Amino acid sequence: MTTPMIRALRHSSYAAAFSAFAILAVCSTAPAQPFPSKTVTLVGGYPAGAASDTLARAISDQLQQQWGQPVVVDNRPGSSGNLAATQVARSAPDGHTILVATDAMLTSNAFLFKSIAFDPAKDFAPVLNAAKNILVLAVHPSQPIKTVAEYIAEAKKNPGKMAFGSSGVGSPHQLAGELLAQKAGIKLQHVPYKGGGQTINDLAGGHIPSAFLSLSAARPLHEAGKIRIIAVAEPQRFSELPDIPTLAETVPGVEMGSFVALVVPAGTPQPVIDKIADASAKILKDPAVSKRLAGAGLVVTADPSAELARTIADGIKLRGDLIKAAGIQPE
């Protein structure tokens, strides 16, 4: 091969290499696609009509309008929300798949199931604590109990005979009762039901003396005189029922929050998380949206991601200890 030919080949190789390098350099410095760049899916773990589903649908249309991309709600009920959580945990960490999570999915389930396919503390990045579901302690009107102190006194008279209903084993409603018993030094009899509807029906019918209920279900019957709410399980009194005290006013430390939050797969870029959080918070604070969610028993909080992270960490510790102390065995 002649020297000119060798030089030509070398020049050709250098040119090709330089072109390839230039292309890579352009690609590496090109800005990432703006979020969202395709359909965004809000994944829920419960059927249509559940509180978390109501929240997802309350924000999906407005997110779609803001972002100019389709925003769809995908309900994947099953295993107390574990199926939905697993799906999102395994999704690409790009913000296009968002879990509309409940407190059970992010805290209790790790202790209520022998095996789950996700780690609530490691597999998700917190976005926004969207709303809380207020829990209350209610009694049947035939009971001579109008305060938490009287409730405790009655339980102490007959250890283990004061029964309280809940929406199921390991539910925040049961854990609220277990926490009250632990902190007040009393023994209560837990009566689990399959859902809040059955619980409140039996309470209103006088079949059980007391129950921990979601405020949304309890309030109409309380106002009709069919049950009596004696306390809320929140840190502060509920603004719309200011005369009803908190449990902690009588027994410090008795608080049991139930919430609906937005989380995304771990590794999602912080700017994407911030964009989802800012847009969602703005929508949730709209009076019309707040009113719609109130109808489902949800009070908008729109707490930022750092506060949600603390809530999840605290919930894992508190609920893990309570479930163990109550002797609840994982399924």
Compact description:
With 331 residues, the chain is of the alpha/beta class. It has 2 domains: 40-132 and 258-325, Bordetella uptake gene, domain 1 (D-Maltodextrin-Binding Protein, domain 2), CATH 3.40.190; 135-249, 3-Layer(aba) Sandwich (D-Maltodextrin-Binding Protein, domain 2). The protein is built from 11 helices and 11 strands.
- Secondary-structure element order, as H and E? HEHEHEHEEHEHEHEHEEHHEH
Number of strands: 11
Please report the number of helical segments.
11
* Poorly predicted segments: 1-31
Chain-averaged pLDDT: 90
Strand order of the largest sheet: 2-1-3-10-4-11
User: SS-based structural class?
Assistant: alpha/beta
Largest sheet: 6 strands, mixed
From the alpha-carbon coordinates, what is the Rg to the nearest angstrom? Answer: 26 Å
CATH class of the largest domain: Alpha Beta
Number of domains: 2
State the fourth-level CATH superfamily of the largest domain. Bordetella uptake gene, domain 1
* Residues in helices, as a percent range: 40-55%
CATH A-level architecture of the largest domain: 3-Layer(aba) Sandwich
Name the beta content range.
Answer: 15-25%
Stated plainly, the CATH topology of the largest domain is called D-Maltodextrin-Binding Protein, domain 2
Care to describe what's here?
This protein is of the alpha/beta class and 331 residues long. It folds into two domains: 40-132 and 258-325, D-Maltodextrin-Binding Protein, domain 2 (3-Layer(aba) Sandwich); 135-249, D-Maltodextrin-Binding Protein, domain 2 (3-Layer(aba) Sandwich). The protein contains eleven helices and eleven strands. It has helices at residues 3-29, 51-67, 82-89, 103-112, 148-157, 172-184, 196-204, 215-223, 270-284, 287-294, 305-325; strands at residues 40-44, 71-75, 97-102, 124-133, 135-139, 163-166, 189-192, 210-214, 228-232, 259-265, 298-303. The strands form two sheets. The chain has a six-stranded mixed sheet with strand order 2-1-3-10-4-11, with helices on both faces. It starts with a helix and ends in a 6-residue tail after the last helix. The relative contact order is 0.17. Residues 1-31 have low confidence and may be disordered.
